Amino acid sequence: MSKTTKPERRAIAALEDATAAAKFAKQVAKTLDGKQGKKLRAAADEAKSAAHVSKKAIRRRPKKVAKRAEKAAGIALAATETALSREQKKAAAKAEKAAAKVTKGARKKDAAKKDASPEPAESVSAFGPAADEHSLEPAESVSAFGPAADEHSLEPAETTPTDLDTLTVAALRDRARDEGRTGYSRLTKAQLVELLS
């Protein structure tokens, strides 16, 4: 037996790569349907046919065999990557659409609950019940964010940035939503505090 030359070894390696690329492309094509699957199967078949070369052809024209196998493997791998990225984009868009639908449904339920729930007879804050019904003195107005600026004032107390700093990011986002702000979902805590102050 004669020794294999460097071009022959390169051709053999290229043929193995083409075989592996064809196999991978076929596996991915099974998960796809339509035009994308058809294109990928065609690229896999081309790589497979480029990989089936006789030993005689490898000995006679190793460079030509290697070039053809490398080209077919490259096409098959590129088609596979394209198909996978398109599928990932489709899946991401589908998931985003489903999440938006769930969020929209949750908002509708919240709105329906607010409309359907009767007003409570007694106002209870985060720090305890309001004044007794029979009491002649008004109860001290206390919210979850601290006492009001003036007991006799009808307007709520302004929230200072230091009060906002004590809240969690989730609470800050809830405040932003309640105030009708937009674009707050990706903001950091410091940015939320700045937005709300």
What does this entry look like structurally?
The protein contains 7 helices and 4 strands; from the N terminus they run H-H-H-H-E-E-E-E-H-H-H. The strands form 2 sheets. A two-stranded antiparallel sheet has the order 1-2. The chain has helices spanning 6-31, 34-51, 55-60, 62-116, 161-165, 169-178, 189-196; strands spanning 124-125, 128-129, 142-143, 146-147.
Judged by helices, strands and strand pairing, the structural class is: mainly alpha
How far apart, in Å, are the first and last alpha carbons?
85 Å
Low-pLDDT sequence parts: 131-135, 138-144, 147-157
Radius of gyration: 34 Å
Q: Give the number of DSSP strands.
A: 4
- Fraction of residues in β-strands: under 5%
Name the strands of the widest sheet in spatial order: 1-2
Q: Could you give a short description of this structure?
A:
The protein is 65% helix and 4% strand.
Comma- or semicolon-separated keywords:
mainly alpha; two-stranded antiparallel ribbon; elongated
